[in-house]
Amino acid sequence: MSQQLPPSSPGRDSEGTDHGRNDDQAVRRDTPAGSAAPVSAPRAPRSAEEAVFGRPDHVTGAFDRPTGSAAPPPIRLRPPEHAELAAAFGRPTGGGEGPRRQPGPSRPVTPPEPTMWADERDAWRDPSAPAVLGPPALEAGTSDGDPDAEPPRAAARLSAREVLFGQRVKPTALGALFAAALLVGLAGGFLGRITAEGGSVLNRPDVTLAEADTAVEREPGSLAEVVSRVRPAVVSVDTGDGAGSGVVIHEEGYVVTNEHVVASAADADSPDIDVVFSDGSRAEASLVGRDQRTDLAVLKVEVENLTVIELGDSDQLAVGDTVLAIGNPLNLPNTVTSGIVSALDRPSRLPAAETSVINAIQTDAAINRGNSGGALVNSSGALVGINTAIREATPGGGSIGIGLANPVNQVRRIAEDLIQHGRVEHPDLGVNPVTRVSGNQYGAEVANVREGGAAERAGVQEGDVITKVDDQPVGGADELLLAVGQRQIGDEIELEIVRGDGVLVIPVILDSDQNR
Questions:
Q1: Average confidence (pLDDT) over 254-271
Q2: Residues 299 and 246 sit within 8 Å (Cβ to Cβ)
Q3: Which among 249, 478, 271 is positioned nearest to 360, based on CA atoms?
Q4: Are 425 and 489 in contact (CB under 8 A)?
Q5: Are residues 350 and 356 in contact, defined by beta-carbon separation less than 8 angstroms?
Q6: What is the Cα–Cα distance from 393 to 157, expressed in whole angstroms?
Q7: Exposure on the CB side of residue 315, measured as CA atoms within 13 A
Q8: 371 and 241 in contact (C-beta within 8 Å)?
Q9: How many CB atoms within 10 Å of residue 402?
């Protein structure tokens, strides 16, 4: 076969004439078909494969030399092996119109492209060219790098009617769509049921817990049985300005409480005091009388069929006995706490008056504000004291396990006097004592002697230190007031007094504190 030159070879026109080289180097195209074209420098004949695919004679390496140094030799054409092939596929004799074309009007000839290795700066053919980063293969926003290409059009959307009845979607696809919709609906219904039934799969409305058939048995005298009997006799006292507790001590409607619970209402022009029973019923109460020295008061309500508490004997108490405190602490009615008797005959000064000192029962049963006036009962349910005060670590700090109750034996005597006479008289010595501690000597020092009182008539002087009342030791002012308060008006007592370096014993007949 003869080698055909491509129409896009540089420097050639449509007739096949090479205008880029001289006549001696150019291949003569007007030679008849089948004859060898003359060349300027004939070489030894090569095989057909080497002639077609071999390296050009002027190229010794893998790349072409830069142009301009020497022109490469012309391309040699092999003579055709068969005259029939040359006549069918060869160029017409006389340098006609070049390569055979289809009959008809001629198409415009595409201008030839430059040879890819003709530029000295071509990085594809020059191994010494530096590496350079170029633009991406395709420009952003274009199709195949063509900026003039139109963007792809969005696919047409189908209506529901076309999807279901227009045969635009395969039946299998429709079935899958309906199955997915069914699954979504089932999941939504399941979640809705969970939400309606409580929002958790752990909730079961049909679950019920088994109940014990055997009732709880409580032995007679248990604390629960005691509370059930005593609690209806304990009431709440509401004065509008505050709240406390009280205990029903007589079926006629008499209720004992603390004086400081009703003090604000008692000082008002029109006292407003209500009593609230354990069942929630309420009744208006009247003030019968009050005693600041013992911090006790008695109220009366017009209510029938009252539950009355049983009065016990505080002298029979022993340290360690079980006791219950019942009352209305912090406006929480019917509250019950338990403890023991921590101490007996605890001198405790109260803020109601200068001489307000009680011989208190100390307990660790929880007592808080609002328990004042409530019941302290023993294990049999008998009243042994009226809860009156507490000791606090900080003001307003609440119970720290030190509660103080007024002994019921004193409560009985004061309540009877208030019910019978509306007031209470106490024995009075006629002195204002202060605690005195000097070395190993303890006692109640006489700060002043009231004029016309029992002490002045007996010859007691200011500065005397009282160390005993009869055979009862006196360690301070509170002990002296308690020792005198346990006597009766008109009783004669003997005072042991330290005056200077001597010790005297002076008899004194007690007066009434109403004679001041």
A1: 88
A2: yes
A3: 478
A4: yes
A5: yes
A6: 82
A7: 3
A8: no
A9: 17
Q: Could you read off the pLDDT of 220-249 as tens digits, one per residue?
A: 878 899 999 999 999 999 998 888 999 999
Q: Note if 57 is an active site residue.
A: no
Give the tokens for residue 363. Answer: 């307990």
Res. 141: pLDDT tops 60: no
* Residues 262, 299 contacting (CB under 8 angstroms): yes
Based on the residue annotation, tell me whether 58 is a catalytic residue of this protein: no
Beta bridge partners of 403: 363, 390
Inter-CA distances, 43 with 38, 40, 149, 270, Å: 11, 10, 52, 147
Distance of CA 341 to the CA centre of its chain: 43
Catalytic position from the list 18, 238, 274, 295: 295
Contact criterion met (CB below 8 Å) for 249 and 284: no
Dihedral class, residue 33 (left if φ above 0, else alpha if ψ from -120 to 50, else beta): beta
Instruction: Determine how many CB atoms are found less than 10 A away from the CB of residue 285.
Output: 27
**How many Å apart are CA 209 and CA 206, to the nearest integer?**
10
Q: How far is CA 348 from CA 165, 328, 339, 478, 484, in A?
A: 100, 23, 20, 8, 15
Residue 379: both structure tokens together: 């294990």
Among the listed residues 18, 236, 245, 260, the single catalytic one is: 260
278-317 pLDDT per residue, tens: 999 999 999 999 998 899 999 999 999 999 999 999 999 9
Rounded to two decimals, the pTM is 0.58
Q: How far apart are CA 452 and CA 455, in angstroms?
A: 8
- Alpha helices per DSSP H over 9-75: 48-53
DSSP symbol at 294: T
| Three-state SS at 229 | helix
Q: Is 260 annotated in the active site?
A: yes
Quote the CA–CA distance of 422 and 83 in Å, as a whole number: 160
Phi-psi region of 314 (alpha: psi -120 to 50; beta: other; left: phi over 0): alpha
Q: 508-511 long-range CB contacts below 8 Å, 24 or more apart? A: 508/429, 508/454, 508/455, 508/457, 508/458, 508/460, 509/454, 509/457, 509/458, 510/427, 510/428, 510/429, 510/454, 510/484, 511/427, 511/428, 511/430, 511/453, 511/454
What would the two tokens of residue 411 be?
A: 């409560």
> Pick the catalytic residue: 372, 428, 464, 478?
372
